């Protein structure tokens, strides 16, 4: 499938989804594409129109931005414009009580949950512009942001979603990650560890959820043109092709189309426990990125 918008019967009509960390970037791309497929999407995160998420000052300065791009309100409105129903819910995914209240609300309002996308990620909060350095030169704060405010976010949301999915004996948990066939993500040991932990989390949850008919898998995009990537290259989505350095990039909606395809697949349980690359799923399911390309999988330079 290319875009799901315009279908006579949206493939995810009636689907109830939660997408965490959906103010911008990957989460926004996923939420919007689920909306285009007809889903009801609870769009969660900390950034609202009245109050942006804290702790992004260093990344904003490095990106040349004065304000944090994106809010859950804007994403929810985009979901609705695409044909779904977007519901913005402010949630700090590091806070147990916030996460419990989120899933209580979903149960109360929708009565079920079909899809959880674990995407809330704290790693940007300690980003200092250094992409390639030995581990002893990276700040130990990376552990706190990538594990305590990254991996733990995914586990906590899954912990609250699992009882709902198990009762239904169906459902899908998608963990966004990065993976290149178990190659070392050279230059940031903390990032490598965090992504490996997320991959293992998706695998381990699959072992316990599969007997209940529930799928858990990890999904790896390539190099995405997020708001911060575009800002760092002094361009925007309308002009990125003028930057040769961005030739290998893909839009966040390419990832979103992969999630929508997985959620619509009645045989998705066969994919449980594994890490899947967006590019591979594009070939399997037949979808494209927003510019009509099937962007090849991003592979790390091992030289």
TrEMBL record:
It comes from the Bacteria. This is Oxidoreductase. The lineage of its organism: Bacteria, Pseudomonadati, Pseudomonadota, Betaproteobacteria, Burkholderiales. Coiled coil: none annotated. Pfam families: adh_short_C2.
């Amino acid at each position: 499938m290319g875009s799901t918008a315009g279908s006579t019967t949206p493939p995810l009509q009636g689907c109830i989804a939660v997408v965490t960390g959906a103010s911008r970037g990957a989460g926004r791309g996923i939420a919007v594409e689920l909306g285009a497929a007809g889903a009801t999407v609870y769009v969660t995160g900390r950034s609202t129109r009245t109050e942006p998420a804290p702790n992004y000052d260093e990344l904003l300065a490095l990106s040349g931005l004065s304000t944090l791009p994106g809010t859950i309100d804007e994403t929810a409105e985009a979901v609705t414009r695409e044909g779904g129903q977007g519901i913005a819910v402010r949630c700090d995914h590091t806070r147990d009580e916030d996460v419990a209240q989120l899933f209580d609300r979903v149960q109360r309002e929708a009565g079920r949950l079909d899809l959880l996308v674990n995407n809330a990620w704290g790693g940007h909060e300690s980003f200092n512009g250094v992409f390639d350095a030995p581990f002893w030169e990276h700040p130990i704060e990376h552990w706190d942001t990538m594990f305590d405010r990254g991996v733990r976010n995914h586990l906590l949301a899954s912990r609250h979603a699992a009882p709902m999915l198990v009762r239904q004996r169906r459902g899908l948990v998608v963990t966004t990650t990065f993976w290149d066939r178990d190659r070392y993500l050279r230059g940031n040991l903390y990032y490598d560890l965090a992504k490996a932990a997320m991959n293992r989390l998706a695998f381990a949850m699959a072992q316990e959820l599969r007997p209940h008919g529930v799928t858990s898998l990890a999904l790896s995009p390539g190099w995405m043109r997020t708001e911060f990537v575009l800002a760092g290259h002094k361009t925007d989505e309308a002009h990125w092709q003028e930057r040769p350095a961005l030739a290998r990039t893909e839009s966040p909606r390419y990832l979103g189309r992969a999630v929508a395809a997985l959620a619509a697949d009645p045989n998705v349980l066969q994919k449980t426990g594994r890490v899947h690359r967006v590019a591979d799923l594009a070939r399997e399911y037949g979808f494209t990125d927003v510019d009509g390309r099937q962007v090849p999988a991003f592979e790390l330079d091992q030289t």
